[in-house]
């Protein structure tokens, strides 16, 4: 059996069934600040950050895009 760390985001996608989890207000602020400090943005990197730092995995990609938008990233 391989572990998710060996497969990165793809490992999470294969094993995760999705759940309703949310960022708390302070966590959302931290993520938005983090996004605003970056020079380039990737969806996979945001997914990884949320999953491992906050144990949040969204079912819908739209939730991630909403965070980009809230950070002023189009």
Care to describe what's here?
By secondary structure, the chain is mostly helical. The protein has one domain (19-70). Helices cover 64% and strands 0% of the residues. It is built from 4 helices and no strands. The longest helix has 13 residues, at 25-37. The N and C termini lie far apart (39 Å).
Short summary of the structure?
The protein is mainly alpha-helical and 74 residues long. It has one domain. It contains four helices and no strands.
Reconstruct the topology from this structure.
Layout: H1 4-15, H2 25-37, H3 43-54, H4 61-70
Span from first to last CA?
39 Å
Characterize the main sheet.
none
**Which sequence of SSEs, written as H and E, runs from N to C?**
HHHH
Q: What is the SS-derived class? A: mainly alpha
The overall strand count is 0
Radius of gyration: 12 Å
Query: Helix coverage percent of residues?
Result: 55-70%
Percent of sequence in beta strands? under 5%
- Ranges where pLDDT stays below 50 over 5 or more residues in a row are none
Mean of the pLDDT scores? 83
Q: What is the count of helical runs?
A: 4
Query: What shape does the CA trace take?
Result: globular
């Amino acid at each position: 059996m391989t572990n998710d760390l060996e497969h990165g985001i793809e490992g999470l996608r294969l094993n995760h069934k999705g759940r309703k989890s949310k960022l708390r207000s302070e966590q959302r602020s931290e993520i938005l600040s983090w996004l605003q400090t970056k020079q380039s943005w990737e969806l996979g990197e945001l997914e990884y950050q949320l999953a491992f730092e906050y144990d949040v995995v969204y079912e819908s990609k739209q939730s991630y895009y909403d965070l980009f938008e809230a950070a002023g990233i189009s």
